[in-house]
Amino acid sequence: MKKLRLLLVDDQSLFREALRTLLSLQPDFEIVAEAENGERAITLAKAHRPDVVLMDLRMPVMGGVESTRRLLQAVPSARVVVLTTFDEDEEVFEALRAGANGYLLKACSADKLCESVRAAAKGASVLEPSVAARMMAEVNRAATREGRKVAPALSDPLTDRELAVLRLLAAGRSNKEIGGELGITEGTVKNHMTNVLGKLGVLDRTQAALRARELGLI
């Protein structure tokens, strides 16, 4: 079995130790390195070429946002998943713009964490619904304060059903959950998702959510 190579990045040694202990129990995971700050993470990523990086945001020397940006420039094949707390919403948004595949709460369950690592390794986006909802509320407040600009029309506009799928995606729903809410099969959701990504000109769910917000679609 080819194991997923993981790099753990957090300035709190106790949290890193807990992560290492938890993830090491999985037969398909291998912890190849640990870093206490973003600068060290970049050096270790170059040396070990991890498949997935679990990245804290607030660290000394170099924080998670800048580290994500530079690490992905150095190791484009890596997937970065941000581990966050509720008071870091704006930094999460910036980390996604820097190229992170998604974000999780540090208090998430062990099963959720392991599933998300595997999903990220395959290139899927990892969206934490509760954080997504808070970010969406902040985006809406900012748009109200500043006055939302008129978004340029898409050359191929989204259908009503595609827009409904997009809004649920941005709220952090899985394909199965979207299907349940819209009364359609998971396969149909995937077809709509493919159309949405193509029309928005993006590659994954995280980019779709960010692009939709920029365009004022959600």
Verbal overview:
- This protein is α/β, with parallel strands linked by helices and 218 residues long.
- It folds into two domains: 4-133, Rossmann fold, CATH 3.40.50; 149-215, Winged helix-like DNA-binding domain superfamily/Winged helix DNA-binding domain (Arc Repressor Mutant, subunit A), CATH 1.10.10.10.
- Helices cover 54% and strands 12% of the residues.
- A five-stranded parallel sheet has the order 2-1-3-4-5, sandwiched between helices.
- The longest helix has 18 residues, at 129-146.
Average pLDDT, all residues: 84
- What is the CATH-assigned architecture of the largest domain? 3-Layer(aba) Sandwich
Class based on secondary structure composition and strand pairing: alpha/beta
In N-to-C order, the SSE pattern is EHEHEHEHEHHHHHH
GO biological process, one term: phosphorelay signal transduction system
Keywords: DNA-binding, Phosphoprotein, Transcription, Transcription regulation
InterPro entries: CheY-like_superfamily, NreC/VraR/RcsB-like_REC, Sig_transdc_resp-reg_receiver, Tscrpt_reg_LuxR_C, WalR-like
Pfam families: GerE, Response_reg
